[in-house]
Design brief:
Elements lengths: L2 E7 L6 H9 L6 E8 L5 H6 L6 E6 L4 H10 L5 E6 L3 E2 L3 H11 L5 E10 L2 E4 L12 E3 L1 H4 L11 E4 H7 L10 H12 L2 E12 L5 H4 L20 H20 L3 H8 L9 H7 L3 H16 L9
Parallel strand pairs: 1-2, 1-4, 2-3, 6-10
Antiparallel strand pairs: 4-9, 5-10, 6-7, 6-9, 8-10
Helix pairs in contact: 9-10
């Protein structure tokens, strides 16, 4: 079994060395590495070209965004199993070995993922999922039911068979944010996710992330095309309502009252907890203050679940 590791880079000169080293240190060594440099203006290219390994295939393109860069890498893949990785995340040495075990145990499935931990500053915290801890892993799970707390799919924890992209399509390049979740919804409507609860990936939360740089709601995935499936899929409805909660809060904190009402009015409030319903009633100033508190608590490892 061989993997095609697709690694996309945009101005990650400070992180790309550790990320690439984490791939090269895998205990399972049957893979190629496809690197798409999406128009970086820093020293990312120099850092990448310093690595001398025949499995690395390097490509550079004008900046087109994360979705287009990932699509380009996926289309260049030689092998059926595509392992995605962001240029500022880190695989533990057993990551590909763990994915291989899941594939061998569930050969009929097409989507695979592992647990992850997040790093905020110098501290790391395991991610939490909507899956009972007393289950046997790896396990084929419903994507929506398993992702009410945190998504079981993440851009650095996922291995996807090529067949999936042929069926559900690729990342949508019109979205600057939320393109991952948009793809995951399509996956969840068509496939189970084989999930391992072994922590194999570390992802880093930066203060100057893309999410914080986006100020317009229309640059984020809105999920309107999936509304037609909600009536017959309660888990999808709840999952989308949790995302609508996030979009509504985002809109209000950016002064977009129309966007706030559009998302709020689609929510079944039975799918939200009391804290989330409380937050939807607060004004912009209060929400911004609460977000500052939330970020401070996050650095201490205290999760405020009302904020998605």
């Amino acid at each position: 079994m061989n993997f095609s590791v697709v690694l996309t880079v945009y101005n990650k000169g400070k992180q790309i060395e550790n990320t690439l080293k984490s791939v090269l240190k895998q205990t399972y060594q049957k893979y190629e590495i496809i690197i798409i440099n999406d128009g970086s203006t820093d020293d990312s290219e120099q850092k990448i070209k310093a690595f001398k390994d025949s499995r690395i295939r390097y490509f550079s393109q004008q900046n087109k965004g994360a979705a287009a860069a990932r699509n380009a890498g996926i289309k260049k893949a030689k092998y059926n199993y595509i392992a995605l990785l962001d240029a500022d995340d880190y695989w533990f040495p057993h990551y590909l070995e763990e994915q291989k075990k899941s594939i061998e145990k569930f050969p009929e499935e097409k989507v695979f993922s592992t647990a992850k931990q997040k790093r905020i500053g110098e501290k790391t915290f395991p991610e939490e999922y909507s899956i009972a801890e007393n289950t046997t892993f790896p396990k084929a799970v419903n994507y929506f039911e398993s992702s009410f707390q945190s998504s079981v799919l993440h851009s650095s924890t996922i291995v996807i068979h090529k067949e999936v992209f042929e069926k559900v399509g690729f990342y949508n390049p019109k979205y600057k944010s939320g393109q991952d979740t948009d793809l995951y919804v399509r996956i969840g409507l068509n496939y189970k996710v084989v999930f391992s609860n072994r922590i194999c990936v570390e992802y880093i939360i930066f203060e100057n992330s893309l999410f914080r740089s986006i100020k317009k709601l229309d640059e984020k995935a809105g999920f309107e095309e999936y509304e037609k499936y909600e009536n017959k899929n309660p888990a999808l409805k709840k999952f989308l309502d949790l995302n609508r909660f996030s979009l509504a809060i985002f809109a209000k904190t950016n002064g977009d009252q129309e966007g706030f009402k559009k998302n709020r009015n689609k929510i079944d409030f039975n799918n939200l907890n009391a804290k989330q319903r409380f937050l939807l009633k607060q004004n912009k100033a209060v929400l911004i203050s609460l977000f500052k508190v939330k970020n401070s608590f996050a650095k201490l490892g205290i999760k405020l679940s009302a904020f998605k």
